[in-house]
Amino acid sequence: MKGFGLGLRPRHYEAILKSSPRVEWFEALSENYMVPGGRPLHYLTRIRERYPVVLHGVSLSVGSIDSLDRGYLAGLKALAARVEPEWISDHLCWTGVGGRNLHDLMPLPYTEEALRHVARRVRTVQDFLGRRILLENVSSYVAYRKSAMSEWDFLAALARDADCDILLDINNIYVSAFNHGFDPVEFLDGIPAARVRQIHLAGHDNCGDLIIDTHDAKVIGPVWDLYAQALQRFGPVPTMIERDDKIPPLGTLVLELDRARAISGNVLRKKAA
Amino acid sequence: MRELASLQLAFQDHVYKPGRKMERAMLATRRASAARRLRIYANAYRLRLAEVLGNDYPGLAARLGEERFARIVRAYIAAHPSRHTNLRWYGAGLARFLQHSSRGRDRQALAELAQFEWALGLAFDAADAPLLEVDRLAIVPPADWPALRFVLQPSVQLLVLHSNAPQVWRTARAGGRKIAMSPRRTAVSWIVWRKGFEPCYRVLEADEAWALRAVKHGRDFAQICSGLRRFAGGEHAAQRGAQLLRNWLAEGLLSAAALTSRAGSQGRRRTSRTRRRGARAGA
Ligand SMILES: [Fe+2]
């Protein structure tokens, strides 16, 4: 799968079917369609007839010390059988322990112990789903004193040890770099190019002391610049804009996506020359 | 996994009940202390769940007004750590919570308002099922009718309410003037289901409510008609049964999945076996 995509959002269902926007693919949030029936599955099915779709989840909790949620995995596998996504992704994080759920992408301590634990679980998930998954770097506001390596070293080691792929969220790199004071380019340099299958772009909220990742605004200039640097390093990677809140009309996002197309065109032309 | 486990448990506890312990496990910078950083997770947790409840209960929220709804939501979140993988189900306990935990004379009516609104939500994404069509029934031989069993389509829910919750919900959603929430002396039955993509609802007469429950419990058409005698009197019961059935078909309440009658299903099985044998003979 190639090109540029958008996150599939309910308020755009009708517009997508009516206008067939020039978008190469859509990313559907798995949990929104892990319901018995009705409108969500109806629209997903109809949109899937016209566009490739990838599935993006938030509930795998691959980093948790709880045992894997087999019910969730079975639901995800059933959804995948129905949607036939190009790939399935979730986040490098944990979402709760002790049978409880914080419904948030909680950061992990980057330790050898955590790496072994997560790698084992990723392999189990991949065996169960019968395919490789992509894991995405999250925005974070805390860093554990116990961490013994950088986030990018952890992600790179995980991709190697678990044989999984990577979804890079350029905005999240920018946010975490600001919040923890690291160089975002160093992050990019630490990621193995062959593992990067997809890129997310998004906006955020800068509070001055910290950046809160809200995914509710336009992509800002420095994140576009970082995107250009990512393409410089990784070559062409399927890219999408991810807007979770204050969602504008479909046409607005299609236009914002044009900026990604333009940047990608520029970078790759220069790279080829 | 000892270190990872203790960090996750402590962090989760911190989200539920912020304290100083977790701060020591996190790095601080000149710009932002560990406390400030951790607060983002604690706040985000409450905001996220509150948003979900607001989306699930817009009618209740409109009825209560922003402040009172926010107060109830805060109390619910404090009392209900999520145990769901999917946020879709987090609000399931709100009606119960209102009934048992809220004070105020209107708590019974508010609980029913929440119960009713949750039922609409369940109807929204209930399983799809092909609907029973009139044509399908038309080919049932008259002799098979008494033993016919119907199946309600998956979105159908039967509610018994002691208040005017559906009317209160409708005016609240329409932004109309507040109508009084009145407890009724007698219970009234309602049906909630999905037609196309839209949840809908209506009140049920006592005999129809009884008949729908009978369908749900697997009674056959003869049993339903005879039960209706209690309401309609002997000779009108069969007529009323037929009328209800017509309405249910028109409203899409019945599923095509499992129309069964003992005689009918045997008949079908016989035919298919004969056909198969015939096919083999021809090949
Ligand atoms: Fe993302």
List keywords for this structure.
heterodimer; A: alpha/beta; TIM Barrel; 8-stranded parallel β-barrel; two-stranded antiparallel ribbon; 10 strands; globular; B: 283 residues; alpha+beta; 3-stranded antiparallel beta sheet; two-stranded antiparallel sheet; 11 helices; 5 strands; binds fe (ii) ion
CATH homologous superfamily identity of chain A? Divalent-metal-dependent TIM barrel enzymes
Note poorly predicted spans of chain A: none
What about the largest sheet of chain A?
8 strands, parallel, barrel
Name the helicity range of chain B: 55-70%
Number of domains of chain A: 1
Describe this structure in words.
The complex is a heterodimer of chains A (273) and B (283). The two termini of chain A are 25 Å apart. By secondary structure, chain A is of the alpha/beta class. The longest helix of chain A has 23 residues. Chain A contains nine helices and ten strands. Chain A has one domain: Divalent-metal-dependent TIM barrel enzymes (TIM Barrel, Alpha-Beta Barrel), CATH 3.20.20. Chain A is 42% helix and 14% strand. In chain A, helix 1 runs parallel beside helix 2, helix 4 packs across helix 5 and helix 8 crosses helix 9. Chain A has an eight-stranded parallel beta barrel, surrounded by four helices. In chain B, the strands form two sheets. In chain B, strands 2-3-4 form a three-stranded antiparallel β-sheet, with helices on both faces. A two-stranded antiparallel sheet of chain B has the order 1-5. The N and C termini of chain B lie far apart (65 Å). In chain B, strand 3 and strand 4 form a beta hairpin. The radius of gyration of chain B is 27 Å and the shape is elongated. Chain B has eleven helices and five strands, in the order H-H-H-H-H-H-E-E-H-E-E-H-H-H-E-H. Helices cover 56% and strands 13% of the residues of chain B. With 283 residues, chain B is of the alpha+beta class. Chain B has a domain of 96 residues. At the A-B interface, helix 2 and helix 4 of A face helix 1 and helix 2 of B. The site of fe (ii) ion has 4 residues of chain A, from loops.
